Amino acid sequence: MIEAHQLVKTYKNGEINVKALDHVSLSVEKREIVSILGPSGCGKSTLLNCLSAIDNPDEGKIMINNQNILEMNDKKVTKFRAENMGFIFQFYNLIPVLNALENVELALLAQNSKIKDTKTKAENALKKVGLNDRMKHFPHQLSGGERQRVAIARAIVHNPSIIWADEPTGALDTKTGNKIMDLILELNQSESMTFVIVTHDDRIATFSNRILKMDSGRFIKGESQ
Ligand SMILES: Nc1ncnc2c1ncn2[C@@H]1O[C@H](COP(=O)(O)OP(=O)(O)OP(=O)(O)O)[C@@H](O)[C@H]1O
Ligand SMILES: [Mg+2]
Question: Which CATH number covers residue 116?
């Protein structure tokens, strides 16, 4: 489902070059939960951004659902991302002036303004994450765990095949973080969604099918280079 080959990404800041990705290759099967673990600054977010076509690597090849995403033009890649991918972030990235339902609905409308029954679809997504009785709450009226549930509802509402998560439990305490990981597991099973999670939290590993360890822009264990 996801095939990345020899990705290289170097950031240039004046005289200093940082090799954020140093020939990274990986493949992820459909319905896998893969965690990418590694210390701060090792290149995890850079890798996720390249795999999800938010950023471009300098070198390498990325195939997603048998499509070469680096060869798509901007319009096509935006459409491909909107249809096939969902995103979960550490700090939820919810819109503060919209309630939970509106935040989820907006994601559908942003994808395609002609989508019908956005309200019902958004309600269903919020039910799936256990927020039946929080739909009219605004982000500031929700706990951190509940905010992340809204963000997960937003990520799954258009039924994508891949969910990218960058530190999804990073802002939560252990218990709440574990509940979020339980929810991710549940969605992985019930919705057949593939999850790629980057984190520096070892505990998340126990919830994954496979763990890839990264350091200084490379995988150090578990995946061939
Ligand atoms: N836009 C940028 N310009 C310059 N350097 C960058 C940029 N983004 C990231 N870097 C550098 O690239 C390296 C990898 O950064 P990245 O954000 O991918 O790390 P990370 O593993 O996600 O870290 P963290 O766990 O702290 O989120 C770091 O050394 C960082 O300083
Ligand atoms: Mg990061």
Answer: 3.40.50.300
How far apart are alpha carbons 17 and 51 in whole angstroms?
A: 21
Q: Has residue 116 been placed in a domain?
A: yes
Looking at residue 13, its pLDDT comes to 86
> Average pLDDT for residues 7-18, to the nearest whole number?
92
- Contact between 188 and 33 (Cβ < 8 Å): yes
Residues with CB under 6 A from ligand 1: 11, 13, 18, 20, 38, 40-46, 200
Instruction: State the residue range of the domain holding 210.
Output: 30-53+82-221
Write down the pLDDT at residue 204.
82
Query: What's the domain count of the chain?
Result: 1
- pLDDT for 188: 95
* Nearest CA owner, ligand 1 atom 7: 11
Q: 41 alpha carbon to ligand 1 midpoint, in Å?
A: 5
pTM of the model: 0.92
